């Protein structure tokens, strides 16, 4: 939410130290443990158990936590796609936001700084729709279907609605350990690195783990795989039947990891899975998850989704309130690597936006894009946002721009980035830069 004009002007002129890190005031997840089974019936069924361990970062005792059940979002809970059973001694409470949020009452209050845990059983029924949670031919995509803890920060408890034309996700990093059982003839790409893979009795069992991720997603199908190493990272490309371009996608993914890692800092994991599909994914043509991306076999799309491993994966943000913080930065990162698809005119970043939509600020929320200007999200957040960052690079120089990007990655890695953090990073690296002029060109409030 925007503050009063006087407060905004004070913020714009304040020194870099004015930016405060996001303060978590509720349940901060430490570890998610999953035991999953995938069954190839209907549109696909994923079921299993989940244990969530957390620390209370708030000033008062926690009597309940909230889960985000994003699997119910694409269809507005009609029908309900995920059913959750809370295991005793915790109990289920109220549901909100078209049953994408569910309260869980803990058995005993968790004091400030104390640890707690809840356990669930759940079943997710797939969708016969080409979507990030859906099915593209014979590949089942299970994005954002695992329950995660909702975030409470100094703005309050975040229960934003599901965004169909973009993302509305906001979650905190934690360790994930998962066991997945599926029919032997199928393979799975997942968040996390493979610890072991065994086949016995017609069943394939995968064990995967990651030390720090905001979410856990997967794709399942009769997938073919090619793989290669990029430094310490094993890159795997999965593709279903009649999907061409796996080896080209592998080269692109390795190049993106190498180039982005050099400029932004280490990727921070030992594995990256890329799932190729034919055709679009609902409102888009690609989708990112921690250590896993879904994409059409196009170089710029693959690179864009891999750039999201830094912008949202490593450095998170509230994607509903500030979608430009991950999409503009990811678009900028991929356009700098693919100049043929970069149509930026840095002198006028908003030239890429239709004249009747140029009044829309870059830092608008998904509420505006979903309800009033659905066609504007691509023009404003992706193209104009990327072009504004390219203008900034032109003004302060590539060396200083790299320092800005690396500073954001260093200070907010595995944390959360806000608009004020970006402005503070610019001031820190270019203290004499006319920042207010750039804010005006970027259609950001001063």
Please characterize this protein's 3D structure:
The chain has 446 residues and is α+β, with helices and mostly antiparallel strands. The chain folds into three domains: 195 residues, Immunoglobulin-like (Sandwich), CATH 2.60.40.1730; 87 residues, Zincin-like (2-Layer Sandwich), CATH 3.30.2010.30; 122 residues, Orthogonal Bundle (Neutral Protease, domain 2), CATH 1.10.390. It contains nine helices and 24 strands. A seven-stranded mixed beta sheet has the order 4-7-2-1-13-16-15, with no helix packed on it. It has a five-stranded mixed beta sheet with strand order 18-19-20-22-21, covered by helices on one side. Strands 5-6-3-10 form a four-stranded antiparallel beta sheet, with no helix packed on it. Strand 8 and strand 9 form a beta hairpin. Helix 2 packs across helix 3 and helix 4 packs across helix 6. The protein is globular and about 60 Å long. It starts with a helix and ends in a 5-residue tail after the last helix.
The CATH homologous superfamily of the largest domain is termed tricorn interacting facor f3 domain
What is the fold named in CATH at topology level of the largest domain? Immunoglobulin-like
User: In CATH, what is the class of the largest domain?
Assistant: Mainly Beta
Low-confidence stretches: 1-18
Mean pLDDT: 93
- End-to-end Cα distance, whole Å, is 14 Å
Count the helices. How many?
Answer: 9
The structural domain count equals 3
Sheet/helix structural class? alpha+beta
Strand content: 25-35%
